[in-house]
Amino acid sequence: MTTMNICVLGAGAWGTALAIQAARAGHDVTLWGRDAAAMAAMRVGRRNPYLPDSDLPAALALTADRGEAIAHAAQGLTIVATPMSGLRETLAALPAAQRVLWLCKGFEAGTGRLGHEIARELQPSMRVGVLSGPSFAQEVAAGRPTALVAASEDADLARAAVEAFHGDRLRVYTSVDPVGVEVGGAVKNVLAIAVGVCDGLSHAAPDAPGLNARAALITRGLAEMMRLGLALGARPETFMGLSGLGDLVLTATGDLSRNRRVGLMLAEGLALPDILARLGHVAEGVYSAPTVLDRARAVGVDMPITEGMVALLDGRLRADQAVALLMSRDARAE
Ligand SMILES: NC(=O)C1=CN([C@@H]2O[C@H](COP(=O)(O)OP(=O)(O)OC[C@H]3O[C@@H](n4cnc5c(N)ncnc54)[C@H](O)[C@@H]3O)[C@@H](O)[C@H]2O)C=CC1
Ligand SMILES: O=C(CO)COP(=O)(O)O
């Protein structure tokens, strides 16, 4: 293995977990976080409060100086690990020669753009890609087996992602379909909210939605994700892979998912601001849902589950009404 200089920009749960993974693999890793006091505390305690059960490897460098972190990876690999809302600003701050992978999953609020579309707008010559797939940060930090997919039009960049993270606990597959990988990652978050709502309602009454409804939502959700992806130019097989079906199953059914937990709490009748305060982490589906729907409408794609979630998140429908609306749709061919 060749040792690589890697910087991870964003010290939340996922950036920290992958920084731990790359440092354990023997790379020279610098993790940047924007909160200087939090980074100083992490330097002393060797823990990130987002991942309270995982020690930070001694060799992992921690900084609140973004320029220093970027310079460290000038010849290596830069990982953008901010939420979707920070991707634009972070990409704009990078030199064009930097090789960059981002981890965020969503459509940008306001513009409705995917990560690769933002990169094309800001840094057309930059070598870029996305790392996605079913992966709770806590499990990766704990060294539990995980498989990811690195997607880029630049084969060398996808190979660099494999070199940075692939190991006996973390497999990294490559893909040449960043559009499909990004659409999967963005839409599954909205669908996970929907499945959380369904599961949260399941004890409300003997005829409440149960396991049958959950399986139907996941399957029809996958169809909805795929319709949008194909309309945006993705390859159909990508949706059967790790970033599509894989991440949808994980996020919709795994209680570590923040998006699923948003759905469970909406089903309890909690207000969205209270839910987000309780979560303490980003739940991208909340911010992406309206933009997923806007993009779908712009290309003439029907996304009824997403539409129901947008109405619920807006406060136009209650949780039970959003689910009832899906059941009241006209019969059609699968
Ligand atoms: N946590 C997980 O298991 C996984 C998360 N992801 C994705 O990774 C992205 C980040 O998620 P997490 O790390 O889990 O979020 P988190 O909520 O744990 O942490 C987000 C961190 O980003 C920082 N941040 C926010 N805006 C920023 C900006 N503009 N510049 C710099 N830092 C900024 C916050 O201060 C916070 O430390 C999201 O898009 C999420 O969907 C993807 C796979 C797994
Ligand atoms: O993307 C994830 C797992 O692959 C994390 O999902 P949540 O953001 O819903 O926790």
From TrEMBL:
Domain Glycerol-3-phosphate dehydrogenase NAD-dependent C-terminal residues, every copy: 177-323
Catalytic residues, chain numbering: 188 (proton acceptor)
UniProt entry keywords in alphabetical sequence: Cytoplasm, Lipid biosynthesis, Lipid metabolism, NAD, NADP, Nucleotide-binding, Oxidoreductase, Phospholipid biosynthesis, Phospholipid metabolism
The EC number(s) this enzyme carries: 1.1.1.94
Subcellular location: Cytoplasm
Domain spans labelled Glycerol-3-phosphate dehydrogenase NAD-dependent N-terminal: 5-157
A GO term, aspect molecular function: glycerol-3-phosphate dehydrogenase [NAD(P)+] activity
Entry superkingdom: Bacteria
InterPro entries (alphabetical): 6-PGluconate_DH-like_C_sf, 6PGD_dom2, G3P_DH_NAD-dep, G3P_DH_NAD-dep_C, G3P_DH_NAD-dep_N, NAD(P)-bd_dom_sf
Primary site of residence: cytoplasm
Pfam families associated with the record: NAD_Gly3P_dh_C, NAD_Gly3P_dh_N
Reactions catalysed: sn-glycerol 3-phosphate + NAD(+) = dihydroxyacetone phosphate + NADH + H(+); sn-glycerol 3-phosphate + NADP(+) = dihydroxyacetone phosphate + NADPH + H(+)
UniProt-listed PANTHER family: GLYCEROL-3-PHOSPHATE DEHYDROGENASE, GLYCEROL-3-PHOSPHATE DEHYDROGENASE [NAD(+)] 2, CHLOROPLASTIC
Task performed by this protein: Catalyzes the reduction of the glycolytic intermediate dihydroxyacetone phosphate (DHAP) to sn-glycerol 3-phosphate (G3P), the key precursor for phospholipid synthesis.
Name of the protein described by the UniProt record: Glycerol-3-phosphate dehydrogenase [NAD(P)+]
UniProt organism field: Roseateles asaccharophilus
